[in-house]
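Reading a protein record of the kind used here takes only a little practice. These numbers are not coordinates but entries in a learned vocabulary of local backbone shapes. Here is one such record, which you should read through line by line.
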Amino acid sequence: MEDMLGASSTSMGERGHSCYHVAMNFLYHAHSGLRYLVLLAALAALIALAAALATGRAGRTTRILPAVFTGLLDLQVLLGIGLVLGGLMPDIVVGHLVMMIIALVVAHGASIVARRSADERRGLVIRLVGVTLALVIIVGGIMALGRSVFGSAPMTVGLVHEAGQVTSG
């Protein structure tokens, strides 16, 4: 019987390893590339929120852009968890994972508190602070990996297979 990656459930043959590496490589690159959309959405939300505070005119954009940022961050964390569940879990990733989950909690928390605010201006300030704080935590989480925010690195950390063997990706 084969799983979704084409690997036999009884043994990891050559095809299983190949499909596993392809799947992990895809997840890694999707996770790495989505980072740019998350950062772009954060920047767009910050600009829209700051403009609304400066002009005193809030619109749909000031609600939609922070929500897009939070949704992309949700997806980013989900892909990261997929990498961890797939066996990509060197010690250095622990701090990164914790910081990203904190950023996600901050983004969602700010959204909830802002939505409950009776004062529109206060809601804008809460959203602005939430996106800013989440962005600072995200940058710290990326740097916790020893990488530049805009740089890229190949997937060279060990992948742990079912047998406990570590191979390079």
Observations:
- Confidence is low (pLDDT under 50) at residues 1-14, 156-169.
- Residues 34-162 form one domain.
- The chain has four helices and two strands.
